[in-house]
Design goal:
The protein is built from 5 helices and no strands. By secondary structure, the chain is an all-alpha fold.
Length: about 120
């Protein structure tokens, strides 16, 4: 049965995952899945971590859009400046960041398509 992921389901899995047998079973499943779609197991794990992050970012963006609907352009600018000041410094060039982002997007889409094809997502 496919449905919306519920927090209580995640908590149950986390509790189960504390057992060594569960960790081994999940690890074996990931390895088999990786073999089936011709990817590395660590890339499968990376994909699901990225998927979770993207959902979190979408939720945060939605909340931000709701909270800033009524702000004036000046207030929005001030908010953006405050946010920029609290952001950690990045020590890569824009070109390096773009190359890395494009590579990650291609990798994500490739794995996503393969997982859709085998019915995992």
């Amino acid at each position: 049965m496919r449905g919306k992921l519920v927090a209580s389901d995640v908590e149950k899995v986390i509790r189960l995952f504390q057992r060594r047998e569960t960790q081994e079973a999940v690890s074996e499943w990931i390895v088999q899945l990786a073999k089936k779609i011709h990817e590395r197991p660590e890339d499968i794990i990376w994909f699901f971590e990225e998927l979770r992050k993207r959902k979190e970012w979408d939720k945060k963006l939605e909340e931000l859009e709701k909270s800033t609907e009524d702000l004036s352009p000046e207030d929005l600018f001030e908010l953006a400046v405050k946010e920029a000041e609290s952001t950690p410094e990045i020590h890569k060039s824009t070109e390096e960041l773009l190359i890395e982002a494009r590579r990650n997007i291609r990798k994500f889409k490739r794995i996503e398509n393969k997982l859709k094809h085998v019915g995992v997502i």
